[in-house]
Write a structure and sequence with these properties.
This protein is an alpha+beta fold. The chain has two helices and seven strands; from the N terminus they run ββααβββββ.
Length: about 130
């Protein structure tokens, strides 16, 4: 099936999907654009897309309201470098190896939070806010 596309010329890339819907007047506001995306009314590159801030580049296709749109880059625009997705981390065995005996497990993958309880109101349990 040969589908015809309506061309959309980008002056800069990438553009976020919710912003593109606003620019094209498919949504009156950013909130409405995000609702349309979350509800499943938008497709990107032939697949349903629910990522509100998905970055779109020249060559991507947008599907909305039974119409197909092809994103192209304006002649004077500079193409952006696409960031490569990070490869998934290799699954490590939970069993300790012989060299790991006597060592404490590493906490490098976890973020540590230092909870500071100073300057907390004893009645409300909240920190004071200073506007000065």
């Amino acid at each position: 099936m040969n589908q015809e596309y309506i061309e959309i010329e980008l002056e800069e890339e990438p553009i976020e999907l919710c912003n593109l819907l606003k620019v094209l007047d498919f949504a009156e506001s950013g909130g409405q654009a995000k609702q349309l995306i979350a509800a499943g009314y938008v497709g990107v590159n032939g697949e349903l897309c629910t990522v509100k801030r998905k970055k779109l580049y020249a060559g991507d296709t947008l599907y909305f309201n039974e119409e197909a749109f092809m994103l192209t880059l304006a002649e004077d625009a500079v193409p952006a470098e696409r960031s490569q997705p990070k490869p998934p981390a290799a699954h490590q065995s939970s069993a300790p190896s012989a060299s790991d005996k006597g060592k404490k497990p590493s906490q490098s993958g976890k973020k540590k939070r230092n909870k500071q309880k100073n300057n907390v109101d004893s009645v409300t349990g909240r920190k004071p806010i200073s506007f000065g």
